[in-house]
Amino acid sequence: MKKFTKLCGTWSLNVISNGRLPLEEFAVKMGRIAPYVDYVHIREKKCTAKEIVAGVRKLVSEGVPRSKIIINDRVDVAVVEKTYGVQLAHHSLDIRAVKHSFPQLKVGKSVHSAEEAQEAEKQGADYLLYGHIYETASKADLPAKGLENLKCVTSSVTIPVIAIGGIKPEHVVPVIQAGASGIAVMSSVGEAADPLSVIQSYREMEGSEWLSK
């Protein structure tokens, strides 16, 4: 996972499936934007392993390399399909067990506090996913974490923290200033009529004076 630095202005842009868009359609859209994103996450809680495998293969056929694909929760699929890594949730397998058995996988962990972040780092996580930073329709019943909580998390660990939740292009600079190594987006890209235009609006932030220092 790429680590943000002010010197080179590097930050990772992650796109995550939202469980509503058919994986085949999601894969076609990701194929259009593959050169402009760092990682594509398949997060499909209602899909079987077989269906997720088919989704991975469709992504690859559309031009998304396996080195950019991350599988949510399903370690078995990530191993069989030789993807970049796996994203673990609170109900997933233990980080240590996954790292020990499958050292080739990059392992991310979804966290919701600085304490959880520190514990995940101790267990060997390669990176963290933290949010939701801003208000979002997908979590309408929960208050946003905000930038101050993001700062607490990023300052409490040494591994990369990817911020997620309601992040629009204009939020990129403040989120990176808060210490995040990258951002993750879902429906704003996956359900967009023109996903390439949306992705380009995020990538344009790389041209800002602050990020290019």
UniProtKB/TrEMBL annotation:
Keyword Protein biosynthesis: no
CDD domains per UniProt: TMP_TenI (cd00564)
Pfam families: TMP-TENI
GO molecular function list: thiamine-phosphate diphosphorylase activity
GO cellular component: cytoplasm
Single GO BP term: thiamine biosynthetic process
Keyword terms of this UniProt record: Thiamine biosynthesis
Biochemical pathway: Cofactor biosynthesis; thiamine diphosphate biosynthesis
SUPFAM superfamilies: Thiamin phosphate synthase
Domain Thiamine phosphate synthase/TenI as annotated: residue spans: 34-189
InterPro entries, sorted: Aldolase_TIM, ThiamineP_synth_sf, ThiamineP_synth_TenI
Name used for this protein in its record: Thiazole tautomerase (Transcriptional regulator TenI)
